[in-house]
Design a protein that fits this description.
The protein is mainly α. It has 17 helices and two strands. A two-stranded antiparallel sheet has the order 1-2. The protein is globular and about 55 Å long.
Amino acid sequence: MRLKDVPRRLGYVLGAQWTRDAAWAAFTILLARRSPETLGQILLALSYGYLVKTVADVGLNDFLLSSFARRQSRPSVLLAQVTWLKCAMMALALAIAWWVTGNQGYAPDLRLVVMTIALGFGMDGVSESFFALCQARGRQDVELRIRAPSAVIGIGYGIACVLADAPVLFIALYKGVESLACMLSALSALRRNPFKGFGLSGLPGLARQMREGIVFTCMAACAMFYNKLNVFFLKRYGGDAAVGEYGVAWETVDGLSVLVSGALLGKVIFPLLAELWDRDREAFRKLAGGTARSLWAAALALMFLIIAESDRLLPLIYGGGYTGAVTAQRLLAPCIATAFLHNLAAYAMIGMGRHKLLLRFYLSGLAVNVACCIVLIPMQPLEGAALSLMFTKVWVAVLTVGFFQYALRPMSWREWLALVTCAGMGGSLWWLFRGMLPREVAEVAGLVPMLFLCWRWRPPTPFQKETSCREGELL
């Protein structure tokens, strides 16, 4: 079968992503308008949930993508072995989360909310192995058919609970409903494919096979901790309402980041890079360079819009009780560029086999994050939480993108000059005109150079490859 091109694959991924994003946006807005404290409790539970999912993943998804894409293992056997391992790690992570919430003195109701959502995320971590197989085989259409209905069912249940003014614990069940629907659909899809055994006998062999995968585990743990550690500090020094305000500020930035780093880079570009490094390094460099240029252009325009429009968008969407979130969102705006470019650079480094160096970059980022959280959040909880994450992400991005540029030269000095020039022109025009012309006119003037760069660096011509996986087959 000929896989048509990157846009077709991305379209399937975006279909699933946008369906969930639309439902999640409605859910978040309703929670925010209900009360900052309710939103803060759900977002705190989500932070624990992401950590449980990271432990359940065991950092194996990138390892699985590489193995499945390169046809280096029997996929049915590997998938079965990894599922057993992930279930065991999920149970361990849930036990640790229960102990930590008790040690932190959380109220019993809040502990139950945390554990309910964390269980759902742990189930997501287990099912990610199946979706890694779909992505490696170019079957993003299967992922769409499973993820989109599951998100509608789960988050739709949560929205119904909010509208019915149900207790927070009932609302928190939305994640378990979504994850259970997802897992059942994945099992149903596997039954239609040749799948053999969930035996335990192969686990020692898996341990030997995934020695290099330990590096991915450590990277995933570092990234998750430095993304979520500030929320735990903010809960301690600012309370549930401050966590809610931070969540409102982070929602747009994180949504845009996940859209690109998760959908385009993680599920479409990375499987291609994993194959190309061994087979065609010039194609690898061209794909990485074209993607980098497009991402830089898009990141500039999105950052500008967030900085210019946060003071109008946040109150309009979430209500007037989140004025403090405006400053926090502006401080978080650079995270869009770092997410776009860092993730591309990180996936390229993994494809090049430089994952050990990448781990060192992540460890340094975790150290920076801990220091920033200790110093900044006690002084100014909300702004300090935003700055802690922004400084960390910029630091890691400087290291990874710097190595990416040094090793591959994906962008020429002329392209870097064009990038800086358009960014400088846009910022200068906005600053110059915003006191002289209507606000909207000044913003359009500032946006024009960046939109020109988006057009100039639009995505490259779709790229095609052959695969032996027939339509309808995963394994």
